[in-house]
Amino acid sequence: MDLGLSRLVRPRSLARSDAMQRLLAFAALILIIVFFSFASPNFFQFDNFVGILIATSVVGVLALGETFVIITAGIDLSIGTVMTLAAVMTGVVVTNMGLPVPVGVLAGILTGGLVGVANGILIARFKLPPFIATLGTLNVARGLALVISGLAPIYFTSTPEFNQAVMGSLLGSLIPGASIPNIVLVLFGAAIVAAFILSKTVLGRYTYALGSNEEATRLSGVNVAVWKTAVYALGGLFAGLGGVLIAARVNSAQPSLGFGYELDAIAAVVIGGTSLSGGEGSILGTIIGAFIISTLTNGLRIMSVPQEWQTVVTGVVVILAVYLDIIRRRQQA
């Protein structure tokens, strides 16, 4: 059942547009780094750059899954609270149940995948708009995280196995003398896997096809519901991985943490050149977008800009990125 997959692959013009968008995003990242380096002497320091890398790791992993969803012209607003639920499930399995750490990590990742499957079924089978469906699961995941945790954080200080196996591994460094935590390597490893799936597998091809023209994809004989559900499930798995990472980063499962992360992830995807109209985007662009968000937030914090104004600046950047995408689409039409 090839179904003329070649007809569903992106045109070369879109590939060139992707490359140009990534180049512009990278240039913007460089300009931001240069600006803050001159604005504050504390910015251009190795420890600060390591902090940016660590901050990018969680948002970046969430953004990887969101990239697939947005390329299909969908949206997933639940990934932030799904990440929280995954962290809580990891804490419950490892700390409360006393099960081995790998089981807890797997439980966290699979929790994200299950919520992703639920999102996909609601959207693909029951035809709910992605915005409404994932807004609903956002609240469901947030409520479940509070219920399962008993409204209290789950600390891993009483679980030395988690500290050694997960925190020690993720916050330690495999590269001698580099002082770059392994959590950053997890981000880049996840990005390589995501890029392979998007560019080299049938799921990746159908992801672009669904976003380019879902009806034409359906008429080609593709089971749209199955593949769309698979895309949301993949996004959920990345959110589950993000839950494990943030649990290791803060040494606890915080049931109230995670709300708002979905906005940073979506911002990273859009800034990186993935079109909200679907059919266009790349993993490399998303990683660049995630670094732009983290670097911008870090620089504003170092300059003692109030939190509320940091949010305003991020919002303006997202609006500008969407507007530029609209202009680019019009020029391609």
> What's the architecture in CATH terms?
Orthogonal Bundle
Helix percentage: over 70%
Task: Give a quick account of the main beta sheet: strands, pairing sense, barrel closure.
Answer: 2 strands, antiparallel
Distance between the termini: 31 Å
What sort of overall outline do the alpha carbons produce when their principal axes are compared? globular
CATH first level: Mainly Alpha
Give the total of domains: 1
Structural class by secondary-structure content: mainly alpha
What is the third-level CATH name, the topology? Answer: ABC transporter involved in vitamin B12 uptake, BtuC
Order of helices and strands: HHHHHHEHHHHHEHHH
Structural Rg: 20 Å
- Order of strands across the widest beta sheet? 1-2
* Stretches with pLDDT under 50, minimum 5 residues: none
Q: Quick one: how many beta strands? A: 2
Mean pLDDT: 88
